[in-house]
């Protein structure tokens, strides 16, 4: 019997001995988020160490500090929030596994993030906007971790976005061999080590609200 992609992914997580957990809610903008927003630019890469089962799975095959990455989107108005476009399993009730646009405080809420680091690609404002526009145009496209060649997941969304911005990030793909999941994947550390990326912050903890 052929398994659907969603069912296969769930079986994969269960087979790895991980318990899935969906956590919701949002917190007021904390001081560390305000500081992050002050130094951000559109198109920056925001890596996070997540709390969910899929994050544990990623870190079990990746030697780096992070399990997820998204692309920063500038506020639509001077008083608006910074947002993050990213490809992810559902993090909200009723939301599909897909490319979504979330506010920065949702993306780095302590319920779904333990730590983060901000990176920048040295590129023109035009290239940045082209990368962001392409990523935003993928909203609703299915998150697909099972197809190593054509699937879209967090790192490949960012990598492809910057290619559309005219910058070919020299990322390293890793061969993964797990039940139901095998092939060459772009893991977060393989993207983070691309020479075109410059770290703007150290690895910083996500600070819960007091």
Give a short synopsis of this structure.
Helices cover 29% and strands 23% of the residues.
SSE map:
Layout: H1 5-15, H2 31-39, E1 45-50, H3 53-61, E2 68-73, E3 83-88, E4 98-103, H4 104-107, E5 113-121, H5 125-136, H6 154-164, E6 174-178, E7 181-185, H7 188-192, E8 197-199, E9 204-205
Helix pairs in contact: 5-6
Overview of the structural elements:
It is a single chain. This protein has 210 residues and is an alpha+beta fold. It has one domain (5-205): endopeptidase fold (from Nostoc punctiforme) (Alpha-Beta Complex). It is built from seven helices and nine strands; from the N terminus they run ααβαβββαβααββαββ. The chain has helices at residues 5-15, 31-39, 53-61, 104-107, 125-136, 154-164, 188-192; strands spanning 45-50, 68-73, 83-88, 98-103, 113-121, 174-178, 181-185, 197-199, 204-205. The strands form two sheets. Strands 1, 2, 3, 4, 5, 8 and 9 form a seven-stranded antiparallel beta sheet that branches. The protein has a two-stranded antiparallel ribbon with strand order 6-7. A hairpin with a 2-residue loop joins strand 6 (174-178) and strand 7 (181-185). The termini are far apart. Mean pLDDT is 84; it is low at 1-29.
């Amino acid at each position: 019997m052929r398994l659907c992609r969603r069912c296969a992914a769930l079986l994969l997580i269960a087979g790895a001995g991980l318990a899935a957990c969906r956590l919701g809610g949002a917190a007021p903008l904390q001081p560390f988020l305000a500081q992050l927003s002050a130094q951000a630019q559109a198109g920056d890469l925001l890596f996070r160490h997540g709390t969910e089962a899929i994050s544990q799975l990623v870190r079990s095959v990746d030697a780096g500090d992070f399990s997820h990455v998204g692309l920063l989107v500038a506020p639509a108005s001077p008083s608006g929030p910074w947002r993050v476009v990213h490809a992810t399993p559902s993090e909200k009730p009723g939301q599909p596994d897909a490319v979504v646009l979330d506010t920065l405080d949702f993306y780095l809420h302590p319920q779904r993030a333990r730590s983060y680091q901000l990176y920048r690609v040295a590129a023109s404002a035009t290239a940045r906007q082209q990368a962001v526009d392409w990523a935003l145009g993928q909203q609703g496209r299915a998150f697909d971790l099972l197809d190593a060649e054509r699937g879209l997941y967090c790192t490949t969304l960012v990598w492809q976005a910057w290619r559309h911005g005219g910058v070919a990030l020299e990322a390293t793909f890793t061969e993964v061999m797990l039940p139901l999941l095998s092939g060459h994947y772009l893991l977060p550390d393989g993207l983070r080590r691309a020479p075109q990326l410059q770290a703007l912050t150290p690895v910083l903890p996500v600070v819960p609200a007091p």
